[in-house]
Amino acid sequence: MNPYKLLSVLLSYPSAELQQALQTEISFVSDQTHAWQSKLKELIDYLTQTDLITIQENYVTTFDRNSKHSLHLFEHLHGEHRDRGDAMVNLLHEYQAQGFEPTGYELPDYLPLFLEFLSLQDKNQAADLLSEAVHVIQYIADKLHEHNSIYASVLDLAVNLSPIAPVPLKVTPIRDMDEALETFGPNPKGVEPLLNSQINDVQIIKISPSQKRTGAI
Asked: Which Gene3D superfamilies does the entry mention (predicted)?
């Protein structure tokens, strides 16, 4: 399995299908470097040997109930500011330009979805795109390590795949949706401003504070 795809699977919401798939990927991990083996063995053992309900409860507690652990990349950059909506539109356009059409209900900035997208790119393109997100990924990894989360190893390995080292991330405070509505007002449909964007006027928004690419995230 492509390493990006494996990391995507490991960070996805646990299911019986995921547990079964991981059983077939143990051989892949055993063929990797010692760093991959040592970092992933504990997590794969946990995901394949622990009852599913317990795993799911831990996943929700870790990622859904703690905003600092959120797997939505732009949440750490923009909070609930309308810029997050513009950034997600740009990222979705990047996916579509490369022939990747996300399915399901996950937002474009969901890290497992982003990693799945990288798994479909050639090595250089994947590394280039990852280098724009690595700063956010490192931030999430640091927060997971602070809570001794078993999932931190997956983020560590994603960072290790990047051709550039991450820089400290200046995190945008999470804004209350009521505050955002009061500040910006509702969109023409009267709903929350989070995804209120004019696609034709969107400017490219980078994940990275330092990288410069044309047509990037």
From this structure: TorD-like
